[in-house]
Amino acid sequence: QVQLVESGGGLVQAGGSLRLSCAASGVTFSSKTMGWFRQAPGKEREFVARISASGAGTYYADSVKDRFTISRDNAKNTVYLEMNSLKPEDTAVYYCRSYGTGKYDYWGQGIQVTVSS
């Protein structure tokens, strides 16, 4: 059974930082591209960042570039999202994703991040 469990969310003031973690089980983590997405109230889910299986390649949405950093620890089956200089518009439910095709594309249940102004 595949599980992606996010942690580290919460309430933070604008300008602050949070670090999200996503612990994976039931997948061959070290062979998977991993990503983070978010969904704000009343909006569609949007891409935030992704990282290649080896960790050598990363890609970010323009809205978070230079503020967020995605990383992974394949020994711990965990992907991280370091979020700095947070803005109220970063408020959303953040989701972890293990990229795959069809039924092998997996998502976490999401974790709330709230940035107060």
Describe what you observe in this structure.
The protein has 117 residues and is an all-beta fold. 0% of the residues lie in helices and 50% in strands. It contains no helices and eleven strands. The protein has strands at 3-7, 10-13, 18-25, 34-39, 46-51, 58-60, 68-73, 78-83, 92-98, 106-107, 111-116. Strands 2, 4, 5, 6, 9, 10 and 11 form a seven-stranded mixed beta sheet that branches. β9 and β10 (106-107) form a beta hairpin. The mean pLDDT is 97.
In summary, what is this structure?
The chain is mainly beta and 117 residues long. 0% of the residues lie in helices and 50% in strands. It is globular and about 40 Å long.
Principal-axis shape equals globular
Query: How many runs of DSSP E, i.e. beta strands?
Result: 11
Element-by-element helix/strand order: EEEEEEEEEEE
The structural class is mainly beta
Determine Rg (CA atoms, Å): 13 Å
Jot down its keywords.
seven-stranded mixed sheet; globular; mainly beta; four-stranded antiparallel sheet; 117 residues; 50% strand
What's the topology here?
Elements (H helix, E strand, L loop, with lengths): L2 E5 L2 E4 L4 E8 L8 E6 L6 E6 L6 E3 L7 E6 L4 E6 L8 E7 L7 E2 L3 E6 L1
Parallel strand pairs: 2-11
Antiparallel strand pairs: 1-3, 3-8, 4-5, 4-9, 5-6, 7-8, 9-10, 9-11
